[in-house]
Amino acid sequence: MSVPTNLHYTAEHEWLDQTAGTATVGITLYAADALGDVVFVKLPDLGSEISAGGVCGELESTKSLSDLYAPVSGKVVETNQAAVDNPALINQDPYGAGWLFKVEVASVGELLTAAQYQAQIA
């Protein structure tokens, strides 16, 4: 399974793309495949403060309900309404159109490199 090398990852299968103090967060292809068809997305509220390692949302699929964990601490500055309206985007393009939210980063939690994440899911 392909793991983009330009991103960082959590042990709970979220990815993080950080540039200039703002980070985009989503779930990995591995997580999307394991969940099955995502049918409902609950994201953190705009302006809310999230804490690295804490639960900040939920993803419901035809198989299960899974918590979404924050890879960083900070303030949520944008959510992907397209993914909320059409959760299938998360399965179709988890690293692109299926991103979940953006956060103004205050501090970073424990992150894995692409190689470390690849080893975890192997």
From TrEMBL:
Classification via Pfam families: GCV_H
Keyword entries, A-Z: Lipoyl
Lipoyl-binding domain residues: 22-104
InterPro entries xrefs: Biotin_lipoyl, GCV_H, GCV_H/Fam206, GCV_H_sub, Single_hybrid_motif
SUPFAM superfamilies linked: Single hybrid motif
GO cellular-component term (any): cytosol
Entry-linked HAMAP family: GcvH (MF_00272)
Protein name: Unannotated protein
Organism: freshwater metagenome
